[in-house]
Design brief:
By secondary structure, the chain is an alpha+beta fold. It folds into 4 domains: about 100 residues, no CATH class; about 90 residues, PAS domain (Beta-Lactamase); about 90 residues; about 110 residues, Histidine kinase-like ATPase, C-terminal domain (Heat Shock Protein 90, 2-Layer Sandwich), CATH 3.30.565. Helices cover about 55% and strands about 15% of the residues. It is rod-shaped, with a radius of gyration of 45 Å.
């Protein structure tokens, strides 16, 4: 019995079976193409595919009437189709087993596609070599199109960032309104050809956290300014309170002196003349004296603060007494007191002051410990530099042989 003598329904079943075999073989061939060192498997699959295709073509041509008969014995056709189907299934299972224990180009591509970070490799003429699914999604979010032309994505990154270059040491942060991405680019050589790798990582959580920290830093800076102003106001109020008390005491003393003098004029014998004169001399001496009380002297408040924190200030030379420089030096001393408490176990702050014709040079150090961690000019050091530069001075930070801050401040009041 041959294929041509079968009823049409059975011929159709065999034709469908042959179609399934072709599909399985095509899939197996596609899988084998990406496997290095498996050429004999590829040749076997191609041979089976060609044989199946010849049988399929004969059956389809007979069905459509292109040929008068297809006289292939069923004793040969059916076992042959079953054998080809079994061979295709075995080949497919062998490919899966081989891929589970070996790395191929296809497995690398699948692994790259599963990465949460976007990966794009391209050559110097902006032709993509590798693009994983994550990078394609990012490209569609930023440019509105799939990543087929690197130039389109590059122009979008440049437009959003204003930068012409991206490196692994200087990542580019792009925020599309919903998500933030960090882009980094590196260069590798493959067979003597420069291949550029552009990676993109979703840093939305870090970006939001950084934005919140920046807002918190600004709020803290504002609170710090208010607290500083409040402390200055408290010091000013305390001084005014003491001054008011002294004025009241002086007023009482002068009033008492006037009453004693008045009594002396009415009855000289009732008043000790020498004590009255001494009393008047003391009051007049205080009124005409140029000497200041301790609380009126510059740096009195910061000295008291240092004492309360257990820090002894050792000053060599004379600190500036010009009104515009006093707040600057006061801030520098306060910052260095904080550094001494935070980074050392020392209890002494040494201040060395030298003068030239037009400048003061002030060195603040604890004199014993050198800081080993990197110096970051944020907060105290940053505000100190701003104040120093605002009066035309300069600031230099040294870490060897010990940590020290050197200030150069110009003499003379601003015009």
């Amino acid at each position: 019995m041959t294929y041509s003598s079968l009823p049409e329904i059975y011929r159709t079943v065999l034709l469908i079976f042959a179609t399934v075999i072709l599909i399985v073989l095509i899939y197996a061939i596609v899988q084998i193409v990406g496997l290095a060192g498996r050429k004999h498997y590829l040749l076997s699959m191609v041979a089976m595919f060609l044989l199946t295709f010849v049988l399929y073509q004969g059956m389809i041509m007979y069905q459509e009437g292109d040929i008068g008969s297809f006289d292939v014995s069923l004793a040969i056709l059916i076992p042959l189709l079953l054998g080809l189907f079994a061979a295709a299934l075995l080949a497919h299972a062998g490919i899966r087993r081989w891929r589970s224990g070996n790395i191929s180009a296809m497995s690398v591509k699948e692994a790259v596609d599963r990465l949460p970070a976007g990966v794009l490799c391209y050559t110097g003429d902006k032709i993509p070599v590798i693009v994983n699914e994550s990078m394609d999604v990012i490209s569609r979010r930023l440019t509105g199109r799939s990543l087929t032309d690197v130039e389109v994505l590059w122009e979008e990154l440049v437009k959003r960032s204003g930068k012409e270059s991206i490196s692994e040491h200087d990542p580019l942060i792009i925020n599309d309104g919903e998500k933030a991405y960090s882009f980094q680019r590196s260069t590798v050589q493959v067979n003597g050809l420069d291949v550029y790798e552009l990676s993109a990582e979703d840093v939305t959580a870090e970006y939001e956290l950084g934005r919140e920290l920046e807002e918190a830093r600004k709020r803290a800076e504002l609170i710090n300014k208010r607290l500083k102003a409040l402390m200055e106001s408290i010091d000013h109020l305390s001084m005014n309170r003491e001054l008011l008390g002294l004025k009241s005491a002086l007023h009482d003393n002068i009033g008492q002196s006037i009453l004693i003098a008045r009594r002396y004029l009415y009855s000289p014998d009732s008043v000790d003349r020498e004590r009255m004169l001494q009393f008047w001399q003391d009051n007049i001496r205080y009124l005409v004296s140029d000497e200041h009380e301790k609380w009126e002297l510059p740096y009195y408040a910061i000295s008291k603060e240092a004492d309360s924190l257990g820090i002894h200030i050792d000053i060599t030379g004379k600190l500036p007494d010009e009104r515009r420089l006093i707040p600057v030096v006061d801030t520098a001393i306060s910052v260095q007191i904080g550094n001494t408490l935070k980074h050392t176990n020392d209890t002494t702050l040494m201040i060395r002051v030298s003068e030239t014709e037009d400048t003061y040079r002030i060195c603040l150090t604890n004199g014993q410990v050198s800081r080993v961690e990197p110096i970051v000019e944020g907060g105290g050091l940053g505000s100190m530099r701003s104040e120093v530069e605002s009066v035309g001075g300069s600031m230099e930070i040294k870490t060897e042989p010990v940590f020290a801050i050197e200030l150069t401040l110009p003499k003379g009041e601003e015009e």
